Q: What sequence folds into this?
């Protein structure tokens, strides 16, 4: 009887979702087939409910014929929630332990993979500036969602979130007054132009696109949890190949190399902060 | 009156608790049999910046192994998992854990609905869902899904709950299979999951 029930309700649903993801892939080139399936299913279900459709067949038709609808679905699937100095202790650790070692290089390259609306990028930009390293660094910030990248380039955020960002900044060991970094404009704040100087934003899909060479530090935070294990392994290999020997990889606070193929290719630098270092080959 | 409990081979237990949950969980988790041959997954509403004190605390006082759930972790028998603060906990079809920072559900992250709905899809009629004390209606939708897929649902009796809104919502809106006083829950679970010898 378990079998019957599962067959009827769940198997059909699984099949419908699979077809829908196939349609998205063929029509728009985004491949969500290796995302964590519980996640994909919940997001699709949510969109189904709020758009008053009764089944995935209807939704598939809408996806194919209505690009705006697809774009909102893309936002659902990609989860853009982020903050400046999110998990302040991570930034503190970077400031205290990574920066002194990174200072020994004449030039460093940093990659933010899955940068969302840019908050994480500008946080590092601030940190590098305060540590006197900005002039000898280059930051690459990528995401597969062009709409969110446009926001990132602008660096304009709602005034109401500044309280959280300011608190995070202070806890992270920030050296200045956080308000030095932006100007307020009605309900929004605009980040200082100088924070963008060393940043290059570009579109990059972790599922399909290739290596970014010779990075000293890669941030990929709160992105891998949305992938299944296979895809995680592939993307971690991509990071491994993009890092220079001894380069650092910084994951989200509930992500780790545990349960992945890459565990022995990196050494943990900070357990709680999920910072790893690419092993130098013997 | 003595009734024979429904014996079936259950594969997992999910528990949801909010306000008053610490005391309720303390009455249940340490009293679960150490031979309980299935996983227990718990969502207790928490403030977003809490650390893993729940898992640490309960690991000290339970005979089963208690830990904070990690992303992609295979779900093991004889283990109690807590959802980390500020993350939703989902169960995948292949019985592994998936965490998510998606927006709050019923004002909560972790949300009981998210755990219950995904666990129902993974375990169908082999799932036991338990809803405890709390001051909102998180869990009710998840219970609807568990019942749709013929799992077993237990609510803490509103009289024995520190805050009765959550079990009441479940009982009235979704319906449950059993209503038990707090101290009856662990013995009942031990009984219906006991291996036949
Ligand atoms: C939750 S946000 C994380 C933002 C930031 N790193 C942080 O931790 O605060 C996840 C981001 O990953 C991006 N993303 C998801 N899948 C991706 C893919 N295949 N390639 C590139 N970016 C992706 C989403 O568009 C989204 O902006």
A:
């Amino acid at each position: 009887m378990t079998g019957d029930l599962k067959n009827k309700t769940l198997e059909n649903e699984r099949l419908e979702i699979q077809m829908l993801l196939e349609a998205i892939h063929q029509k728009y080139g985004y491949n969500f087939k290796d995302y964590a399936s519980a996640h994909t299913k919940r997001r699709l279900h949510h969109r189904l409910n709020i758009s008053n459709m009764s089944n995935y067949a209807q939704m598939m038709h809408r996806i194919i014929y209505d690009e705006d609808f697809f774009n909102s679905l893309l936002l659902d699937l990609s989860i853009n929630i982020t903050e400046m100095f999110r998990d302040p202790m991570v930034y503190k650790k970077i400031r205290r332990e990574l920066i002194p070692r990174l200072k020994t290089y004449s030039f460093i390259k940093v990659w933010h993979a899955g940068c969302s609306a840019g908050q994480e990028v500008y946080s590092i930009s601030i940190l590098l500036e305060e540590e006197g390293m900005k002039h000898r660094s280059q930051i690459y910030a990528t995401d597969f969602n062009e709409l969110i990248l446009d926001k990132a380039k602008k660096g304009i955020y709602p005034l109401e979130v500044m309280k959280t960002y300011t608190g995070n900044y202070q806890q992270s060991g920030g050296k200045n007054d956080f308000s030095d970094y932006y100007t307020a404009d009605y309900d929004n704040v605009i980040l200082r132009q100088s924070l963008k100087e060393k940043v290059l934003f570009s579109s990059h899909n972790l599922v399909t696109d290739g290596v970014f060479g010779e990075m000293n530090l890669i941030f990929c935070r709160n992105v891998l949890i949305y992938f299944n294990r296979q895809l995680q392994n592939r993307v971690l290999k991509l990071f491994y190949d993009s890092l220079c020997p001894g380069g650092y990889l910084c994951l989200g606070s509930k992500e780790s190399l545990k349960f992945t193929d890459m565990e022995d290719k990196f050494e943990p630098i900070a357990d709680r902060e999920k910072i790893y270092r690419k092993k130098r080959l013997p | 009156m003595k009734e024979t409990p429904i014996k079936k081979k259950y594969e997992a237990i999910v528990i949801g608790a909010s306000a008053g949950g610490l005391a309720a969980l303390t009455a249940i988790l340490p009293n679960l049999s150490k031979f309980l041959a299935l996983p227990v997954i718990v969502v207790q509403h928490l403030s977003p910046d809490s650390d893993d004190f729940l898992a640490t605390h309960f690991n000290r006082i339970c005979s089963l192994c208690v830990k904070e759930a990690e992303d992609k972790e295979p779900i093991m028998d004889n283990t109690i998992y807590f959802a980390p603060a500020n993350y939703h906990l989902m169960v995948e079809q292949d019985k592994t854990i998936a965490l998510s920072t998606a927006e709050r559900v019923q004002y909560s992250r972790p949300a009981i609905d998210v755990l219950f709905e995904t666990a129902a899809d993974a375990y169908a009629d082999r799932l036991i869902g338990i809803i405890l004390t709390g001051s909102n209606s998180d869990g009710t939708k998840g219970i609807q899904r568990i019942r749709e897929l013929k799992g077993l649902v237990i609510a803490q009796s509103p009289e024995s709950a520190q805050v009765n809104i959550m079990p009441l919502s479940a009982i009235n809106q979704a319906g449950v299979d059993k209503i038990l006083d707090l101290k009856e829950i662990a013995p009942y679970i031990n009984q219906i999951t006991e291996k036949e010898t």
Notes: Chain B is about 30% helix and 20% strand. The longest helix of chain B spans residues 112-123. Helices of chain B lie at 21-28, 53-61, 112-123, 140-148, 165-174, 182-193.
